[in-house]
Structure formats: structure tokens, C-alpha cells
Amino acid sequence: MTTKKNNAATQNAKSSDSGASLLNVLVKHTSASLTVNDANDERVSLAIESALNALVPESWNYPGGAVTFRHTDEGDDDMPAHVKSTLVGASLTVPVDLVGASVGEAPTRGFLLCEHRSGGGFGGSGATRDAVVTRVRCRKSYQVALAIDAGKECVDVTERLRDVVREASRTTDSESGVANGLVNVFVRHGSSGAFVVVGSSRPTFGTSFVNALDDAVRETESSHLREKVKASLASASATLPVSHGALALGDDQAVFFCERGTGGETREIVVTVCGD
Q1: Which residues lie across from 110 on neighbouring strands?
Q2: At a CB cut-off of 8 Å and minimum separation 6, what does 188 contact?
Q3: CA triplet 151, 155, 204: central angle to 5 degrees?
Q4: Does residue 5 surpass a pLDDT of 60?
Q5: How confident is the model over 72-86, as pLDDT tens digits?
Q6: Which DSSP string corresponds to 55-101?
Q7: C-beta separation of 169 from 270 below 8 A
């Protein structure tokens, strides 16, 4: 997988200066999570649930398991549910255009609320979940095209993001640039389980990370569903700090776009920059 590299971000990314904003959704519970995936195929949600049950089994509540949980006040599904919520994440941030939340190019793609308690959490079956939805107006949005090569599942897109942030930080006659704020990276394509991840900049990270995900979902029944589950164990979105007009990553950090493709496809990430 490679990216098309040019000297300036404006040469390889479509920019929108009006109507750009981000939508953050937070589920206010420690035993539930949110993910972006195929919302119309029940097999996907069942595969996610099965994979998480295999990763964090309730047998870990008892001595002799790989881990012995101590926080078991509400039953066998108590601590496993907290771990699953942390693995998938209780919060998601996606770009918003003038029409609505941009969860992806596939019409079936949407938000999935994952409940990890068998009985609906404290209070038993029928308990409700509350979510906070926040919309933040942003300065600029870019659609960045990625060309995929066969045989390479993860590509480092950090320099592409640095280009976009530098472009957004420039002051023009009509407006000031973004010096400090946030940049959100979102994967629009979801049919084959694409995701974005922040990790080590070392050359072996991408392969090692995907191999670890492969091992985590090895019991999922089909390759199609395995890729879907991997996308939820990682994420379709990452939000990073911008400081003094630059992407504020650690010295050994990088941003990767990952997908198990056949090669020859073009994928798109949406990069939204917010701040002052």
C-alpha cells in the first residue's frame, strides 16, 4: 500500500473550507462501547460479540484462568464487560459535512452501540444507555486519496498528515491559519475492514499489529467477518493534537492506514482540522 506523494498538500488532497465540523459521540457507561461498522448485517455485530467473548472470557473470573479478575461485584460479566468497553472504546469522532455525519461511502455503514453486559448492566435487562453528542465547528477538511499496492496491509500516512496540517496553518489574506487545535483522521471506506491506528514508527509495527489482530480474530467464521471485527478492535477514526502549526506526535509515533486489500484500489481518508 502506498500513498501518492507530491510537494504540497493541495496537490494531492481536495480541500473544503466551509461547513467542516466534527461530531463526537460518547456513551456514558463503562460496560458499553461504540464502533463504526456495517450496521445492516447482523452477522457483523454477532461476530464482534463472539470475538470479544473469546478475547475476554468470563472464565477469567475464577482461579486457574489466564487472568483472575477481582472486580466481580455484579456477576461473571462485570469485569469482562469493562475490559471489552476499553478495547473497543466508549467514544467516537467522525467528520460532518453539510448533510450529516460522514460515516463512510457504504450506505450500510453506521454507528454500532455494543452492550457488553449480558443482562444490560447494573439494573438488569432493559437498562438504558445515555450518550452525549457534541458537534464542533472546524476550519478545514481535506479528502486525501491513497493508492493501494498488493501485499502491504499498513502504510505510514504521517507525512501526508503533516502536509495537511502545515497547509491548514498557513495564514491567507482572508483568514488566519490553525496554530493550535486538533486534527481528525477518518477512514471513509469500510467494506473490507479498513482502519487507522497510531503506533510505533518502526518499520515492523504495521505487520506486527495486523498479525496480532489476525490472531485475536482467528476463530471468526469467515475472512470477510474477520476483517470487519479487526476494524472495530482498531478504529475508523483517530484524533491528534496540533501545536504551533504542526502535528504534535511523540518522537517514535506514527499514523497508519491499514486494510487487507487485493491491490490496485484507491481509498480515501478525511482529514479535518479544528482550532485557532
Answers
A1: 37
A2: 102, 104, 105, 267, 268, 269, 270
A3: 80
A4: no
A5: 778 888 899 999 999
A6: HS-GGGGSTTSSS-----TT-TTHHHHHHHHHHH-SEEEEEE-SSSB
A7: no
Beta bridge partners of 181: 242, 275
Dihedral angle of Cα 82, 83, 85, 87, to the nearest 10 degrees = 170
Share above pLDDT 70 across residues of the chain, in percent, rounded to a whole number: 82
Q: Which amino acid is at 153?
A: E
Grid look-up 494531492 returns: 12
- Calpha distance 80→161 (Å, rounded): 36
Instruction: Determine which of 61-65, 190-194, 232-236 has the lowest per-residue pLDDT on average.
Output: 190-194
Q: Residue type at 110?
A: G
Q: Is 170 helix (H, G, I), strand (E, B) or coil?
A: coil
Identify the helix (H) or strand (E) that includes residue 256: strand 253-258
| Residue reference for cell 450506505 | 107
- Return the exposure string of 95-114: e unless at least 16 CB atoms fall within 10 Å of the residue's CB, then b: bbeeeebbbbeeeebbbbeb
Cell of 239: 484524533
> CB-based contacts of 27: which residues, under 8 Å, 6+ apart?
33, 34, 90, 91, 113, 129, 130, 131
Neighbour tally for 148: CB within 10 Å: 21
Reported as a single tens digit per residue, the pLDDT across 199-247 is 999 988 988 998 899 999 988 888 889 989 999 999 999 999 999 999 9
**CA gap 111, 91 in Å, rounded:** 11
Structure confidence at residue 139 (pLDDT): 87
Name the strand (E) or helix (H) holding 217: none
Distances (CA, A) of 103 to 33, 61, 90, 108, 132: 17, 37, 17, 10, 17
Diameter over CA atoms, the chain: 68
